[in-house]
Amino acid sequence: KVRYENKKWYKWVKYDDGTANLDIVAGDFLNYLAATGYNLDTVVADTADADSTTPFGAGVAVAAVTVTATYMWIQIKGLVTLSLDPTGTPADSNALVPSATNKAMAIATSSDVEHICGHTIDDSAKLVYLDCPW
Question: For residue 23, what are the contacts with CB-CB under 8 A and spacing of at least 6?
């Protein structure tokens, strides 16, 4: 399921807390579970459970989750405030990719092979324009 509301897109997904049993809060960046996550709409916060070579960004949590196998909405497009600063040395208008750090995005570099899933709008406020695939 995909939903559009107030210039933002949301997707209904299943959260897997992964091998590290990570709880999440609103603003945490999530990736699809390695191999089958996109097809099964399953997301993780633990990067060890995402594809280790090229993690596939899913979106941002809109609420806290403390239980695995919880179904929830994540934001996939539109303005969002992240819970963590993007890794690297962020500045406004930087392209963002999935990070090697749990629950975070990273500044894209010329050597990145991950897909671009957003751009910083106001780095000091952790405000990002999110653009993840549905």
Answer: 17, 64, 65, 66
Q: Where are the beta strands (DSSP E) in the chain?
A: 2-5, 8-15, 29-32, 42-44, 57-61, 70-81, 95-98, 105-107, 118-122, 127-131
Number of domains in the chain: 1
- C-alpha atoms less than 13 angstroms from C-alpha of 102 in its C-beta half-sphere: 14
Question: CA 78 to CA 58: how far, in whole Å?
Answer: 13
> In the 8-state DSSP scheme, what is residue 4?
E
- Model confidence over 29-50: pLDDT tens digits? 999 998 788 889 999 999 999 9
Residue 98 has φ and ψ, to the nearest 5°, of -60, 145
pTM for the model: 0.93
CA distances (Å), origin 128, targets 29, 63, 66, 125: 11, 17, 25, 9
Range of the domain at 103: 2-131
